[in-house]
Design goal:
The protein is mainly alpha-helical and 106 residues long. It has five helices and two strands. The radius of gyration is 15 Å and the shape is globular.
Length: 106
C-alpha cells in the first residue's frame, strides 16, 4: 500500500508527488536567476543535503567541474556558502540574497 499525505487543502498526495511539487516550486523560484539546467540540478541536490561525493556520482562529473558549477550558482544567487543557499533560493524571485559574495566558500 502506498503512503499518503494530507495537505492543508484536504487533498491527498503520495510522498513522491509532494517531492516532485517541491522540486517544481524550487525550479520556478530559480527561473529568474537563469541557472543552466545542470546548475539547477546541482542546486536541488545541494538543497537536498547531498554530500559532494554523492553529487559527483549522481551527476557523473569531476570535482573541479562541480566546484565551477557551485561557484557560478553562488554568484548567481548571491550566496556565500551552502548554508545561505536555501534562503537565497527563496529570495530569488524577489531579489538576490544580500549575503556577501566576497567570502564564497566551495
Amino acid at each position: 500500500s502506498r503512503m499518503q499525505k494530507r495537505t492543508a487543502h484536504g487533498r491527498s498526495f503520495a510522498p513522491e508527488t509532494a517531492a516532485a511539487e517541491a522540486e517544481i516550486r524550487i525550479r520556478l523560484q530559480l527561473e529568474p536567476v537563469r541557472l543552466t539546467r545542470r546548475e539547477a540540478e546541482i542546486t536541488l541536490l545541494l538543497l537536498g543535503g547531498l554530500q559532494r561525493k554523492d553529487i559527483l556520482e549522481t551527476c557523473g562529473i569531476t570535482n573541479n567541474t562541480l566546484k565551477s558549477h557551485i561557484r557560478r550558482i553562488y554568484r548567481k544567487l548571491g550566496a556565500a556558502r551552502r548554508d545561505d543557499l536555501a534562503g537565497c533560493v527563496n529570495a530569488a524571485g524577489r531579489a538576490k540574497c544580500a549575503t556577501s559574495r566576497s567570502s564564497a566558500s566551495i
